[in-house]
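Researcher: Go.
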Amino acid sequence: MHADLDFFFDPVCPWAWITSRWVAEVQSQRSYDVSWKFISLRMVNAERGYANNSQYEAIHNAGLQGLRVASAARSVQGNAGVAAFYTALGTAIHRDGRRDLLENPHAFLSEIATNASLPKTIADAYADEAHDEVIRFETEIALGRTGKDVGTPILTFNPKAVNEASLFGPVISKIPRGDEATKLWDAVQTIAEFGVAEIKRSLRAAPQFD
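Model: Structure:
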């Protein structure tokens, strides 16, 4: 049995985090089955390079470290482990504004694992490149569904079904709740299933994580 939605995330992306909390809100109302999958901004940007922007490179490297631990969480507790780890990590990074992933990744990820009721030892995977194979594999799946000129998150509705539909986004600045969440879900799913390639504006409000 396949999930109702594949959600591809990099834990350091604030826009992916907001979208993920919207998905979780809809999941709580409609009992959708969400498969949490990996897309690495470090790998996405490997060909483009970072020039002199070392800040983004450092952040994306930290995201890859987080994904390695998410992969280890999956090996221990499956999809539920990934969901719990991402929730704990994203809350700390985005809602609480902690920068420990850049400054002291192993200790921080050990704390996050404990907070997510996962074995503390999965934090050891942060430097283990053996996890990069599955992260790269899922990154390539995501980009194969949308094309390469996108970021995170990437969503696939009804994966493996005849009406499978993927898109980048939605990029939203605040987390929809209640009826707003389900209304947006229905609209985005409809747009995806119609094969709409692009609806865009460049202006964005500042991200709100509460």
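Model: The mean pLDDT is 94.
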